[in-house]
Amino acid sequence: MKRFFTALIAALMFLGFARVQAIDYTGIVNNLTSIDPEIMKYFPRWKICEPDLQIQVYRTFVLLGYEKSQLNMQQILVLASPLDADPGYKPYDVLLISCGEASMNSVEIEANMASLSEYINGYKYYSGPRRGEAKDFYVRDYCFEDIKPEIPASSSQATAIMSYLEPTNVTHAFTLSLFEQSLKIGNSGFWLKSSIGTDEVGYHFWQSGEARVILKRPLYENTEASTRDRIPYLINAYIGGGYRVTSGIDDNKSILSWVSGRSLNGSPGGKLVAGLDFHMPFHPEFGIHFNTEMPLTQVTVESIDKGAYGSTQNVNNVKFKPGDSLNKYPINNIYPILKATGQVTLFYHWWLNEASPENYIRMDLGINYSEVQEYAGYEIPDPKTKTPVMYISNQNILNLRTYKPNETGDWIYAKAEYRNQSAFPFGISFQYSNQILLGRVYIPLLGQWFYLEGKYATPLRGLRPYEKESFFMISPVLRLTI
C-alpha cells in the first residue's frame, strides 16, 4: 500500500509539473500579442506594402475565421527577433504578424502560414531570379517600410488625441516652431501658447502683422468613460492678448529673406483674444467653437515709426477733404491695419477606428468675420526739430477703403484636417476662410520629437492691395513630451 501511495503522489506531481509547463509555455507565446511597446520598439519591425503579399496575408487571416471588421490589408506589420549576425547572413525569425487589430504569434504563423512566412522573413525569393527558391544572402525583395527603432510601437503612437502638437495624453509637453510655441502645464490641463499670424482668416506667419499669447484652460471635465481618454474636457476657454509685430516688412538682410514680405499691419493698440470650445455632453466628438480678436483701442490719428509698418501705394487718389488744414501734406502711402476677426463654427472629431485610432479626421464648418481698414500716411515736420514725423489717420480723408465681408464667400469658414499616427506620423489640413485657401502639412524628420511643418496660402478671389498671390513658409518643429 505504501508503494501505491508513493507512486500515486509521484504521478500527480509529474502531471502537475507538466501542466505548469504547458500553462507557462502558452502564456509566453500568447504574450507576444501584447508585448510591452517599450520593449517592442527595439525589435526589428516593418510594414508590408507589397500588394500581392498584402492580399495573401489578409486572405490567410480571413480563412482562419478572424473578424473582417478587425482586419486592415493596408496595415500589415511584422515583428521579428533581432539578428545575432549581420543582416543578410540569416533570415529573420518572425515573432508576430498583425493585420489591422488581429495578430498571429510565431506558433500560429508556423501552423497556418509557414510557406508564406519564408517570403516575409527573406528566406526565399519573392520577386527575385526564381520565385520560391532559397537564397544564400537573405534580403527581403518585396515592398516594405522599416519602422526605425527610435519610433515607438504603433499601439503607443495611435493614442486617441485631438492635436498631435498639443497631446493631452502626457503630463508635460513642449512644442517649438517659428509658427507657434506651446507648453502644457502638468496635469492641470492648462496650455500656454504663443503664435504668430492669424491663420483663421488665411494670413499665416508674419503676413497678418500680429501675434498673440493665450492661456487655454479647462472648465468642465468629461465624465463619459468611452470618450474621456481622447476628449478629457467638455469645455475649454481661451483668453489672452494680441500684439503688433514688425518683422517681414523689409527682410532683405535676414536669414528669412526668401519669404515674401508683407504690407498688412496688426492693430497698434493690441487686441483682446478670447475663445471657447464646447463639446456636446451627449456626443463629445461634436461641438461648437467660438473665437474673437478685438482691438483694444480705436485708432484715428497716431504717429508711427515708418520702418515698422507695412504700406501700399496710394493708387485710389486718397486725399484730405477740401478745406482741411492738412490738405497741403501729400499722401503717398496707405497703411492697411487688420482690425476685428472672429469665427463661430461647428466641429466634429472622427477616429476612423476607435480601437486603433491611427487615423483621425476633424471637420469645421461655420462663419468667419475679418476686417481690414486703410489709413492714410503723411509726414508733418516737427515744430522744434523740423524733422518729418510720420502719421497715420482715417479722419477727414476721402477714398479710404474698409475690407469686410460683403459676399457669401467672405463669410464661409470650412476646414478639414487628417492625421495619421502609424509608423510614419504626419498631418495635413486645408482651410477655406475669407476666400483664402490655406494648406498645412507636417512630417517627422527624427523620431517623435523633430518635425518639419509647412504652410501655403493663396486667395481664391481678386487680390487686395495688401495681399500676396501666394505665401509659403516652412519651419522645423521641436516636440518634447514627458
What does this structure look like?
The protein has helices at 2-31, 37-40, 51-63, 106-112, 114-120, 154-157, 408-411, and strands spanning 45-48, 76-80, 94-99, 102-105, 144-147, 173-176, 180-185, 190-198, 203-204, 210-221, 233-244, 271-280, 283-295, 301-304, 312-313, 319-320, 333-351, 359-381, 388-393, 397-398, 402-403, 412-420, 426-433, 436-446, 450-459, 471-481. Mean pLDDT is 85; it is low at 1-33 and 151-157. It is mainly beta. A 14-stranded antiparallel barrel has the order 6-7-8-10-11-12-13-17-18-22-23-24-25-26. The chain contains seven helices and 26 strands. The protein is elongated and about 95 Å long. The N and C termini lie far apart (67 Å).
Terminal CA distance: 67 Å
Read across the widest sheet, the strand sequence of neighbours is: 6-7-8-10-11-12-13-17-18-22-23-24-25-26
Main beta sheet: 14 strands, antiparallel, barrel
Q: How would you state the average pLDDT, rounded?
A: 85
Q: Catalogue the unreliable spans.
A: 1-33, 151-157
Strand content: 35-45%
Tell me the Rg in angstroms.
31 Å
Count of individual beta strands: 26
Residues in helix, % = 10-25%
Number of helices: 7
- Derived from helix and strand composition plus strand pairing, the structural class reads mainly beta
Shape: elongated
